[in-house]
Structures are given as structure tokens and as C-alpha cells.
Fold these 4 entries.
Entry 1:
Amino acid sequence: MDAALKLFLLAEDTVLPIEAVAPTIVHGQVDWMETAEAHIFKVNVPGFKKESIQVQVLEEDILQIAGEQKMETIEGKQHCLERPRGSFFRQFKLPDKVVADNIRAYDEHGVLIIVVPKKPFVKKIHILPKV
């Protein structure tokens, strides 16, 4: 019998261990996009509190994103536990031409958006006398 069907057919007063019904690792799925002005990272963090997410730049070129979603503790039976819990940890090597001091991060409806600005490209051209 299929494992999902077994879970469905359990008696309603049966309480399963959390591992049997909910994943223990949150993947922290990331989209990394690039525009002319910045690198943009979008990380799925639904239900995470802002205080439980850390965004850091290590050694000026490694973007590190980590978070932890702890399980609520309540009295009584827990009939269904499907929301993701656990932690995630991601690291990305940043390109050379970014401004690590100006990185911004904000939450938008359960998606953490990290904006890593690029260094402006300015090439100085020297004007030489006509020969």
C-alpha cells in the first residue's frame, strides 16, 4: 500500500511522530537574477520570522543566507503537521564587481529579496594631443 494512502487511512486519534508527516529540512529555494545595476536573490521563506534569518557577506565575496523555522509547542494532539520546519543554509560566490557594503534585504510576502548592487562601470579616457 502506498505510504501516503497509509497516512490517510490512519484512525483520527492516532498521533504520528513529526518526522512521519512533515519534512525536517527547509530548502530555502533561491532564484538569482542579474540586472544592469544589481544581482538580485529571491529566497522562499514563508512563515519565517525576520529575526530567524541571517544574511551575511563573508570575506567580501561570499553571500551567506541561513534561517531556522522552529516548531510551535502546543498542548494536546497534533493531527496534521505539514508546514515546513527546520533550517536552511546557502552560500553564493559573488562576482568581483559588486558593492558588498550596500547590500539591502527585505521581505515581500514570504520571499526574502536581497539586492547586491554592482560597482558602476566608469572608464576614464585620457585626451592626448594630436601628433
Entry 2:
Amino acid sequence: MAKEQIQQMSSKGHDVCILDAAVLLEAGWQDFVNEIWVCVIPKDEALRRITDRDSIPEEKACQRIESQISNQARVDQANVVLSTLWEPEVTQKQVESAWELLQERLSETSPPRPKQPKI
């Protein structure tokens, strides 16, 4: 379904289609996308956030983290790496900077498209 939606957006002239898939790497969907952006945080911070958010014991939260691929494995496959360790405003700035760099990469590799009129 996601692959069809990506193709549909592309056929409509969209240069970017964001696929928000927490398990993209685990599912083996790397071939569906041109770039992989990942968010990482240290394991101890992930543990704290899970126990706080889900009110579960630390042992259970640790099992959840251990069942996922490692931060290093994510970074190894990523084109862009973001960290959500700090305040949301800092993460927002990271995303905006990465987005601007993506726009530059797109303008270097794609012929210019006429601007679509807003209706």
C-alpha cells in the first residue's frame, strides 16, 4: 500500500514523499525510499522515556529496546541522523536544517520544474 501511494504522489509531480515508518529498516523497506532519516537517543534515555510514558517496569522497557535494531545499525543505513535527546525546539532546528539540505540536493539532481499555481 505504501509503495502504491509513493508512486501515486510521484506521478502527481511531488518531489518529496515522507514515509513515517518506525520499523522501516526492520521491515526491509529501504528499497522503497531514496533517503533514510533516523532519530536516535542513548539507550538510557530511551529506557527512561519508555518507563515514564508507558508506566512499565524497567526490565520490560529494556526488553523492548533490546528487541529493536541498535542505534548503530540505524545510523549505518541512514542518510540523515537526527537526535531527539534535547528539547523539541532543538530537534525542530535539526529537521529544518536537514530539510533545507534535502532541497539543495534535489535542486542539484533534478531539472527545474515549473511552479504549480496555487488554487
Entry 3:
Amino acid sequence: MSYSADQGEKVELKKTIGLFGGVSLIIGVIVGSGIFVSPKGVTQEVGSVGLSLIIWVVCGILSIFGAQTYAELGCMIPKAGGDYEYIMTAFGSLYGFLFVWSQLIIIIPTANAVAALTFADYILQPIYPSCDAPLAMRVLLANGASQLG
């Protein structure tokens, strides 16, 4: 059923999120693709699977502290805009503006590139099991993945 302006009813999104949506959002934002990149490096550097699991648990606890901080900020500053609003309220509009531009120009594209290259590495691993995949293959596959995603 579609609504028209002459009926006098306003169409808007519901400002609610359920348990499944909230958990999915948290997993997608916090975990991301980093969980697929970092275990190999952590295990190589510490030399022990047990110690790498301890490091993983400690980092998980730190992530919980970060999530609680964002929940507190969300309660204290109930405005739409997330990080931008928090920085603008705490430090002023210049820093909020610089934050948004750094997100737009550097942080988000870099995170997307890392996710795409990680995807390419995992896809090419069975094809090149005993050596690194050629850089051109990695870049082309990552570029294709980022264009589709």
C-alpha cells in the first residue's frame, strides 16, 4: 500500500532496532574483516596458539569497553550523526568537519581496500597454495570485489 501526500499521512522509518538487527550491526562493525587478517600475524609473532588466544580475549574485553563508551556517548548526546556529533560536541565544529573529511578521504576507502584485498587473498589461496599470488591478480580481484560490493 502506498501513501500519497493528499492523504495527510507522513511516511517515515521506524526508529527501532531489534535484538537480531543490533547483534548483526555490532558484529559487522566491530569484527569486520579484521578477524580474518590478524590471527595469522598474531600467532606468528607470539609463537604460541595459547598466548594468541589470550591476546584475543584481552582485545575482546577492550572492545567491550569501547562499545560501552559509545553506548554512554549515545545516551549523553542523543543526536543523529554518531562520531561526528560526538566530536563536534566535545571539540567544536572545525574538528567535526576535519573528522568527516578524513573519514571520507582516508579511513573508509582504506578499510574497504583492506577488506577487498583480504577477500582476494582468501580466494587466491587455493590457486597458489605454495606461494604468494601475483600482485596483479590480487589487485584485479580486489578491485572487482569492491566494485560489486
Entry 4:
Amino acid sequence: MVFHSKRTSPARLKGLAIIAIVIVYSWSASNTVSLLRETHQHAPSLSIDDSNAPPPITKRELASDEGLILDPIATETNVSNRTVIPSILPPYTKELARQAIRPVPWTCGDRYEQSVDPLTNQKPIFSFVHIYKTAGSTLRAFFLEYASTCKKSWMGLIGCTGVSSSSIQSGSVFDDGEEQNWNKCRVKTVLDRRHHIYEREETEERVFPTVNNTILRENFDIYGGHFRIGTGDYIFSDSVESATAAPVHPVRHIVFLRSPMERFVSGILYQDKRKSDDEKSLEQTAKMIKKRVRGSRKANQYWDTSLSYLLTPKQVEMFGRLKSSAKKIQTTKLTWEEHFAETKARIAIQNLIDYNPVIGMTETMKESMNILQHVFVNYQFYEDDKEELESDMKELFDKYTPDDTKGVRQNESRNGAVSTTSVLQELKQDAEFMLMFGEYVKYETMITDYAMRMHLVQHEMVTEGVAPKQQSATSA
């Protein structure tokens, strides 16, 4: 609305401006509430008390005029519609960890078996969310080899972070009535040992050139790639209500994370190798990174790459509409950019709790592979090939589990002189820059720290040899 009165005084103009800001800010808050309520419905949340749970991670409480919606005290009237931005991040319990690491119900080597997960009453399907620069290529290769050894099926996907929420919903069809495929998503690799199918993206005639819910539900045990958590929400259902009927999410997720500073530097090295044949020295690389971080902080930006994967497609779309429509308002303590970044980070953490994935960390790759071994090797082998399968499985995990003298392989320049570790050591010589760097990645650190807690509890359950409570979806 534009006012053209020449008699409008400066005081009146100031008052109108304040009213406009209040209206925009109120609209922004109400849309945030709608976002939280709508997106939280889709991921089942487990409220389990565990006195042995690690203490919660506390964050400063933000004043209500800053626009963050804090989690209310749970009561009978609001517990089902609680928000997903808690003022204190909730603890990750041992019971949740037990459910996350429960062993697969299938028999390794049996290509015809139709196994059912007792917690979901559905066939087990795993979704590996490949977050950028978290050893994802190594893990893709691992899952491909695992599927080959156990006679299971794997689909590797690329370019899927932009998939729309409408295209992943079962019941979404084209004009001719055929099911809509996941848009902006390409199938790179397919291995189906049941039907002796192996395809790559360049294969001319392919059985599986596209991906949708029916294809995954009827043909695949594990799929993975650069896509968002929750992309497979509708594989087993065509509505929010049926998707949340089970006590745990019907699609089991696997997520690996890494120290944000390491991930940022590793990504810069990887991008630089792809864009230029010129080899940069260690000092040149550090200077380039400093320039990039300082430029981002000058624009009041925060690094939030993991949010390309840890927010659901619907959450990303709603945040996009909210950000494009609302004004960037300076709040009493936080800028709009910081308010927005922290809000999204808290929702990402809540998604980790709700989807309860197997969590791996590249800094503790040995322990992470131990968790995967607990999940994927239940020592139920096809009887006719039992000895061979058991030997092959041991060899597979030995291949991908680093010993104590080997860390995660870092990206290096062509001459091998520059690595993630050496660049970080160079950057740490500048204490003032490191403070800025820490500020730049602080919301990624917030997410990664919580994921590490989940990882440690899951590994503790593996080392204790604790079996999950076996209860069916109908009896829970």
C-alpha cells in the first residue's frame, strides 16, 4: 500500500512504517507456525523417557519478539501439535538408538525372500542421504558391493536435492494416468541381483531409467544419493495419516556427517580441482578460503550446506516462500539472516530425531562401519552358501573399515601437496580468522554436534550388544 497525502507528517509516516513492519513480522511468524505444524505431521515422533540419556544441548532462550517459536511445555492439549523448534534441544535416548540400529530382517544370499520389518509391518527399505563431502562416494560403493554380495538391490541417484514435494507423493500422476516420477532426479546406477540387472546411466536400454515410489517399493532394498531426508515419505503410503501410522518411519534412513570446517575446506578443494588445472599452493588455497568466508560474513551469510539434505522437500519449499515474501527485519538481538538460519538448523535437528537415521561420522569411520555392520549383518545367511557368504561379508567390511592408522581419505590436489588437514592447519595460524570461520559455520556445527551425540549413543548400543525390542506395528 502506498500513501500519497502531502499533509502526512513525518511522525505519521514513521508510525505507518512501524505498523507495516509489525504486519510483515506477524505474517512471517504465523507462516512459520503453519510450516512447523504441517511438516512435523509427516514424520512420526517418539516420546520415550530414558533416565540414562545424555544431557540435552542447551541454547540461549530467545525473546518472543525475535520471531522464533519456542517449544511449549507439553500438555494433553498441545503434545500432538508441538512445534519443531524446541528452546532446549531434546535428548537422544537409548531406546531411539536401539530402534535405529536394529538388524535387518532379511537373509543374506536369498534372492527370493520376502522379509518384513516387525516394527513397521513393511518390507525393509533403506535411504542413504548422501550429504556433500561426507565420504558419500565411498559409501555408495559399499552399498553397491553389499547388495551384490547379499543378492539384494541398490539404486544410486543423482541431482535429487531439487525434487518437488508434489512429485514424490504417491497418487501424483501424469495426464495419461501413469505415476509421476521424482522430478529433477536421475538414476545413475542400478543393481538388482534378484533379476540379474546391472545398469549405469550411460546404458542404452535400461529397465529402470527413472525413479518413483512404486519402482522403489517393488524392486529395491537400498537407495541413496544427493536428496533430502523424507524424500521417500510416500513410498509405502499416499497420505500423511497412513505414513505416520507406524511407531517408526517405514523407510529407514542412513546419514553421515563431518566436522563443518573440514567439510567446507574439502568442498573448496574439490570444486577448485574441477574448475581449474592450475595447482594452488597451500598459502594460495588458505588465502582463497579466507576471502570467501570474509565475503560471506560481510554479507551476513551463514554456511548451511547440510540443510540441502536435512530439511524435507516440503519444508524447503515453504521456507522459500516465506523468505521471498517476508522483509528482512533487524530484530533486537539477531539479524533476520541469523534468525532464519537458526530456525532451519533446529528443524533439521528435529528431523534427525523424527526420522531417527543410522548416524555415521567420517571422523569416527571405524565406529561408523561397526554400526553399519551391526545393522546389515545379522548372521542369517542362505544355507547353501553360508560359509562363502560369511567370508565375503567379513572381507567387505574389512575393506571399508579403516584401521587405527588410517583416517578418512581427504581430497588432495593433483600433486598431493594440499589436503584438507594441511589447509586447516594453515588457517589455524590466523586466530582472528578462525573466530570468523567458527561464526560462519556455527549452525552447521549445531547440527553436527547433535548428530555426534546420536552417533555415540548408537555405537554404545552396538558395543553393549543390546538387541532392539521386537514389537510389531500393530501391537505397538
